[in-house]
Amino acid sequence: MGIYFDLGRPVIGGWFQGGWVLHDPVRGRDLLWGSELGQEGAVLFAIDVDSGHVVEDHRIGCREFNATPDPQTGLLWVATNHGLFQPGHLLLSWSPHTRELTSHGFPPISGQRFAGTPFLASTGHIYLGSHPHGHLSSFEPETGTWRDFGCLAPEPIIPGQHIWCYPHAELESGEIACGITRDPTSNVALDPQTGETRQLDEMPPAAAKAEPTRDIRPDFYLAADYTVDGQKRTSDYKPRVATDIVGLNVGPDGKIYGTTIISMHIFCFDPVSRQLQDLGRVGWGGGEIYDVIASEDKVYMGSYSGGYWAAYDPKQPWDPQREAGGISPTANPRCFGELGQDMNRPFEYAIGPDGRIYIACRSNYRIPGGGLARFDPASEEIRVFRDEEQSFQSMTADERFVYGGTSISGGRGCVETTTEGRLVLFDVDAEARVFECVPIPGADAVTSLAVSNADGLVYGSVSSGQLFAFDVAERQVVQTWEMRSKGTPLMGVPETYGIIHLTCGHDGDIYGVTRKDVFQLNVSTGEIRYLDPPPISDLYQIVEGEPGVFYIGARGHLLEYHLQDRPHYR
C-alpha cells in the first residue's frame, strides 16, 4: 500500500474577464459583473460600482463562460462552455428579482460548444453561435423554445474542419449578421423567418449601446479592478479558483517545478523543507504554460499564445519584468521571443542526445500542421523543423534519437488532411526524420511518450486510450495495452481527447496517469498494475522525484504519492 499527501493548491486565481455593466432595478444600483475562470469551476460575481463590494457571487459548473446584459429587463444572460464533468454547455440567466441563476438548457445539437457571447436581438430572442460545426441557434425567453439554424458556413463544407460561428449584429431587415471563422473566413446574414443565409462583403458595425450615465471601465485581467469616470477603483473580490497543473518536472536544485494553465504562473515544491511556493505570474504570453524542463542550472518553458520560449534561473531573484514582456536580459524568467514559423502552442519538451531542448509544437490558428522546435541553451539559437500536415503533441528522447508524437490537428480552424497520429524518430545529427509509423491504427494523436532505461523501448499513449511499446532496433510496435479509463482533457487543446501522461521511473518501469488512475507498467512482465486510488480525479501530469516518490497534478492540487508507505513509530 502506498500513501498520498495533498500538498495543496499551488496557484490560486484564474483568469478574470467580463466587465458587464448592468443596472439593478431592484437594488437601485449599478453593478459591474465579472468572472473568474478556472478548472475548479468558474465564479460569476457582481460588484457594487460605488462601494467596490461584491454583492453577488455564484459558482458556475463550467470552466469558462461569456455573458451579455439586457438593460431593458435587468437580466444577465450567461453562455457556459467547457463543463467540469459533462459537456456543460448551457444558457443561464440571472434575474434581479429572484437573484438566482436559471438554466434554459442547450439547443438540440450534439458535439457543439457555445462560441462567443450571447447576442440579444430586438425581438427578445437570444442568438448563440457554436463550434466546431459552426451552427447558429436561437432561444425565445417567452416560450422557452430553442431553434437550430444549422451550419452557417458557406459551401464547401470540408468534413473535420473546425468552424466557429459568432453572431455580431442585427440588420435593418431583421437578419442576424454572423462572422464565420475557419480557413477562409467569411461573413453571412441569416433571415430568422426563412432560415435562408446570404454572404456579406463586410461585417456591419454592431449596434450602438445606450450611453451610460457614467463611464465605467473594467480592468479584469489580473484583478477585479475598474475605473469610474476616470477614477481607479479596487474591488474586494478575492481570487478563489485554483487553476490546473499542466507541467511538472524536477529542477536543477532538486525542487519540483510546475506550471499552470491560463494564469501563467510558475510554482515550486521543496521536498526537504516541504514548502509549496507560487513564484508568480510570468512576463510574457497570455494563455498557458504547457510544460517545464530543466537543463544545466535553469528551468525552461514555452507558452501559448505566440509560442514564446523562456528560462528561469532559480539562483536569481524573481523579476519577470512584465511591462517589458520579459525580453530584457535581466528579466527572470527571461523570454527569448517567439519560436517562429507560426508555432503557437509548445506542448512538451525533451533534452536531445546533443544537449539541446526539443519542443513539440502546434501551429497558429487556421494554419495546418506544426513542428519540432529546437533550442540551444549554449547559443540561445532557435530553429523550427516544420511539418505542413501534422502538429507535434508529445516528446521524449534518449542517447539515440528524439521521439515525437504527432496529432492530425494543426491550428484551430485549419483543414485536417490526415487521419492518424504518428510516432516520429528524429536524428539530431542528420537534422531529419529517419523513420515514422502509426503506432495505433485509428488514433488521431500520440499524446505522451517515455523511454524505459531498463529495456530501451519507447512507450507511448494515444488519444483513444491505449498504450504501446515500440522497439527502436526493430522499428515496430511490439506490444499494446487497453487502459480501463482514458486521460484527462486539457483546457486549451483544440481536441476533446484525454491525455494519458507517462514517465519513466528510477526502476525503469513506466508510470502514468489516466483521468482517475495511477498505474505502473512493469517492463519486464508487460503487466499493468493500478496503484492506490488518488483522493482527487482529473489527473493530468506525473513525475518522479526521489525514487518511489511521485508528484501528480490533480486538477488544481499537487499530490505527492509514495509508492510504499513508510512505517511510522511513536
Describe the structure.
With 570 residues, the chain is an all-beta fold. The protein contains no helices and 50 strands. The strands form 13 sheets. Strands 25, 26, 27, 28 and 29 form a five-stranded antiparallel β-sheet that branches. The radius of gyration is 25 Å and the shape is globular. It starts with a strand and ends in an 8-residue tail after the last strand. The model has no long low-confidence stretch (mean pLDDT 91).
* Gyration radius from CA atoms, angstroms: 25 Å
Largest sheet: 5 strands, antiparallel
Shape: globular
Mean residue pLDDT? 91
**In percent, how helical is the residue content?**
under 10%
Distance between the termini: 20 Å
Strand content: over 45%
- Helical stretch count? 0
Compute the number of strand runs. Answer: 50
Structural class: mainly beta
Residue runs with pLDDT of under 50 for 5 or more positions: none
From the structure provided, what is the oligomeric state, counting identical versus distinct chains? single chain
How does the SSE layout of this entry go?
Blueprint: E1 3-6, E2 15-24, E3 29-37, E4 42-48, E5 54-60, E6 62-70, E7 75-83, E8 91-94, E9 101-103, E10 113-120, E11 126-131, E12 135-140, E13 145-151, E14 164-170, E15 176-181, E16 186-190, E17 197-200, E18 216-219, E19 225-228, E20 231-234, E21 245-250, E22 256-260, E23 265-270, E24 275-281, E25 288-289, E26 293-295, E27 298-304, E28 308-312, E29 334-338, E30 343-351, E31 357-363, E32 370-375, E33 382-387, E34 391-397, E35 402-407, E36 423-427, E37 432-437, E38 446-451, E39 458-462, E40 466-471, E41 476-482, E42 488-489, E43 498-499, E44 501-504, E45 510-513, E46 518-521, E47 528-530, E48 539-544, E49 549-554, E50 557-562
Antiparallel strand pairs: 1-50, 2-3, 3-4, 4-5, 6-7, 7-8, 8-9, 10-11, 11-12, 12-13, 14-15, 15-16, 16-17, 18-19, 19-20, 21-22, 22-23, 23-24, 25-27, 26-27, 27-28, 28-29, 30-31, 31-32, 32-33, 34-35, 35-36, 36-37, 38-39, 39-40, 40-41, 42-43, 44-45, 45-46, 46-47, 48-49, 49-50
